[in-house]
Amino acid sequence: MMTPRSYLLAEATWASVRRTHFEVAVLPWGATEAHNTHLPYGTDTVLTAWIAAESARRAWDSGARVVVLPAVRFGVNTGQLDIPLTINMNPSTQAAVLADIVASLAGHGVAKLVICNGHGGNDFRQMLRELQPRYQRPFLCTMNCYRAVDPDAYFLPGDHAGEMETSIMLHVAPALVRPLAEAGAGAAKRFRIRGLREGWAWAPRAWTRVTEDTGVGDPRGATAERGKAYAEAVVERFATFLQELAAADLEDMYETRDEG
Ligand SMILES: [Zn+2]
């Protein structure tokens, strides 16, 4: 029999929730989009929910009162709408969803919220700039699952359904990964204009003009071992972050000069 995990709201009961003062809420935010031919549409949500849950478990075990909210499964996919059943949630809709979640948490006295983002098209920073002045609590912050630890030390480059996502999926949800022999090479075309190619100028990409198999990055050398090593490193960092955030005094968030 599975024991409900008190730090996952979707598994918690009112009995446990009403006797716990949750200090930090974690909101995993994924996407529903094609991931080459070997990974499922839910990949970003599976990965971000797993990282959030595993990090929260460790933080909880060391005494931090954190709760992971159910993941939002739709992300910003305006550049992939010509790929069947990619589901887009516009940034303005995300902002409205986020505002309602924050308003609920504020009413319940949850002091801190961190968004755990697992999709490159999502960007919550401007939303937090707009939302935070409306609330004293919760303190709002966001983290990107793939920036906590530099993937370049572990994997070939690529930012969509490449070695990194494939390796982590092989570790956390191997039953959802098709044989890598079925996967496309994830070859991606770069912008002709130099500034866009170098990344100091930016424009959203028209996905089906960039890649034939929806992937960006070659997944075929992915391994569960490297996925595990990377996921462990990310969870280690994020669990520590959650503990620090839970313990933080919101009136005293900045170092004094001599500490820096
Ligand atoms: Zn992805």
Going across the biggest sheet, name each strand in turn. 2-1-3-4
User: What fraction strand?
Assistant: 5-15%
Q: What number is the mean pLDDT?
A: 95
Number of strands: 4
Measure the end-to-end span.
49 Å
Order of helices and strands: HEHEHEHEHHHH
Outline? globular
Number of helical elements? 8
Bound molecules: zinc ion
Structural class, by secondary structure, is alpha/beta
Low-confidence stretches: none
Radius of gyration: 19 Å
Largest sheet: 4 strands, parallel
State the share of residues found in helices, binned by percent.
Answer: 25-40%
SSE blueprint:
Layout: H1 14-18, E1 24-29, H2 43-61, E2 66-68, H3 91-107, E3 112-117, H4 125-131, E4 139-144, H5 163-172, H6 194-198, H7 207-210, H8 224-247
Parallel strand pairs: 1-2, 1-3, 3-4
Helix pairs in contact: 2-5, 2-8, 5-8
This protein binds zinc ion.
Zinc ion (ZN) is lined by residues 35, 43-44, 160, 165.
Describe this structure in words.
The protein has 260 residues and is an alpha/beta fold. Helix content is 35%, strand content 8%. Helix 2 links the parallel strand 1 (24-29) and strand 2 (66-68). The mean pLDDT is 95. The structure holds zinc ion.
Short description:
With 260 residues, the chain is of the alpha/beta class. The chain has helices at residues 14-18, 43-61, 91-107, 125-131, 163-172, 194-198, 207-210, 224-247, and strands at residues 24-29, 66-68, 112-117, 139-144. Helix 2 packs across helix 8 (224-247) and helix 5 packs across helix 8 (224-247).
